[in-house]
Amino acid sequence: xxxxxxxxxxxxxxxxxxxxxxxxxxxxxxxxxxxxxxxxxxxxxxxxxxxxxxxxxxxxxxxxxxxxxxxxxxxxxxxxxxxxxxxxxxxxxxxxxxxxxxxxxxxxxxxxxxxxxxxxxxxxxxxxxxxxxxxxxxxxxxxxxxxxxxxxxxxxxxxxxxxxxxxxxxxxxxxxxxxxxxxxxxxxxxxxxxxxxxxxxxxxxxxxxxxxxxxxxxxxxxxxxxxxxxxxxxx
Length: 235
Known about the structure:
The protein is α/β, with parallel strands linked by helices. It has helices at residues 16-23, 92-95, 99-103, 108-119, 129-144, 155-162, 173-180, 190-210, 216-234, and strands at 41-48, 58-67, 70-80, 124-126, 152-154.
């Protein structure tokens, strides 16, 4: 009997091939001083079994790449992760990943290693990034013993910072896509949500450049300053 169920299980020892691939992953790079257009960005979305940061699991990963100022459709990633006893809450009604789809998924260690190979040394973008960063980081630690250190920028913070005239503060992805008039064909599917987030991010990058924020490092510093101001206003 596990007396401490909140503690993470130790990762299952990896096969030699996976160990070699893990050791060959490039390390993350600090946010650069190049232009936003020159930076390769990986835009991430996760579907999870719920919103509990310590108990729920990553069920699928979707990602697209922004490079040279546009979505590169030749670089896309999508995986459903195999979970033997998935903890499925009400979220399954939203993303539609039922037991059969999850049972047909890829072994988590393989899927997560494939994803980090896809990411390389690029920074990540996500909408409500702290959640995705925490859930991805926990999954990587549990399955691979890997510590996630890649920088994340939260598109949910970028949008109100760069568009104060929109008067949208605690807005969701749907609110911002409506505000900008983006055409959304599908939602609540990891790959589709990653693509919508990428389209929103490109619009926001254009605004950032007009405001003199034309490097990943400068943009991240501005977001950090904006976040502190928001927190100070609350308190």
